[in-house]
Amino acid sequence: MLSYPPFLPSSPQQLGWIEVIAGCMFSGKTSELIRRIRRAQYARLPVVVFKPELDQRYSADSVDSHSGMQIRSFRVTESEQILELAGDARVIGIDEGQFFDAGLVQVCEELANGGKRVIVAGLDLDYMGEPFGPMPILLCKAEYIQKMLAICVLCGAPADRSQRTISRGSQVLVGETDAYEARCRNHWDPDSYEASQEQLPFGPNLAESPRA
Ligand SMILES: [Zn+2]
Predict the structure, then answer these.
(1) Residue 80 known to be catalytic
(2) Which residue has the higher pLDDT, 201 or 152?
(3) Which domains does the chain have, with CATH numbers?
């Protein structure tokens, strides 16, 4: 299975493409985006990163992962602004793609058609388990996709769902770690927003888990 470009083609014509990094909360999407952008920086390719205006976690002018990696970025309110601001960048990163308008798909297509490498990270499912914003269409249009998995906080199994753990009416900041947990298919319940008090028995391989 080819989920990631194996090499950067050195064609006389610049070849562009779209990569999507999708997954649930705490699956490492932003860290993976930053890793790819950093590799491009090491290769002295001009890079730029965008994120939606509403994402104001941690700091105002950089894309941050939960693990503390950081990179400079622009905040934009509409996907169209990405075309204006991309300039001569060869590699364009877009974080929190799920929060952009539907026009993001066409923007990514135009950039890739123009020879840019476009990397979009975002939640593929919302906390109700439904495809999120422009992500499902982008997953179809992309040349390369990677689905990141987290670890279920209740059983340690691979997790691909974001469980909202506070009540429905509460204000929730984007990326607020207290409001969501990664859950596996068995432990994800969209109808329950209260933190689960249930402590399931851990297997011997999870003896080191902080929850054990
Ligand atoms: Zn589980």
Answers:
(1) no
(2) 152
(3) 17-149 (3.40.50.300)
